[in-house]
Amino acid sequence: MKFVDSARIHVKAGNGGNGCVSFRREKYVPKGGPDGGDGGRGGHVYLRANAQLSTLLDFRYKKHYEADRGVHGQGSKKAGRTGKDVVINVPCGTLVRDVASGSLLFDLTEDGQEVLLAEGGHGGRGNPHFTTSTRQAPRYAEPGGKGQELEVEFELKLMADVGLVGFPNAGKSTLISVLSSARPKIADYPFTTLVPNLGIVRYGEYKSFVMADIPGIIEGAAEGRGLGLQFLRHIERTKVLAVLVACDTEDPLAEYKLLLDELKRFNPELLDKPRIAVLTKMDVIPEEFTPMMLGDGTPLFEISSVTGQGLDGLRDALWTRIVASRT
Predict the structure, then answer these.
(1) What is the pLDDT of residues 118-161, one digit of tens each?
(2) Do 150 and 20 fall within a single domain?
């Protein structure tokens, strides 16, 4: 399934039905009073967060959503039927912005969360509502109100406990495939991962957490180079960051610092998140390798996703920080 994390749609709530102008006419009541019914309310447009969805792909094919209008009122004080509402399902983690103003309308983060996006027009009142002491037979009824209409932009930010951050070919995809049931494409060349991958990592018998494999960052990503801004935003919602550096890179410490610099340039608050450093591919450690000294107090784990070296300790450390972030 193609991963799409932004989309723009047009929504229109239903117009309200018109009120009715009618007068009671019966065999022995030739000049009865007004009996026009009220029009029905127009249908609303709702948004609902759905944990079963993971992409905004559907909105690439359907861009217009319109609720039904309310039915007009009828004689004998028969009210018109309310227009049918429209419910639009979006993935958890979807931001909703008004295109016209650029303002943030909603942030849908919880499964089942539902918000009113566009309100249907009110139903017009029938002519009985306009009788007065001097006007007993009004020939006027209220028209239905217009339904709200707007264009909105969706932006999806993945909901994950742990975000794997690293340059291309740092071993992120291999790690998530070993720790979880996710099966991302893995190969020994840069940019194998072109879309974020989510995996459920089991911890103990009954615990688990969600890990996100973010496509590889490159220098200048904060300014949009490479995959750049397209995927950096997915890191913002993660509770814990795992910064991965391959041990066989030319200068692991310089690469680690460069990654932190890219995160800081994109959003300085990312460096306030709990994080750990992970030195990967320890099964192919080069002869000239020297231990990496971070100097910033960040815990460092040396692992091999191939042999399993250090994975239990890494899993424990991630879980500890996830639990701490929830309190």
Answers:
(1) 999 999 999 999 999 888 889 999 999 999 999 999 988 877 88
(2) yes
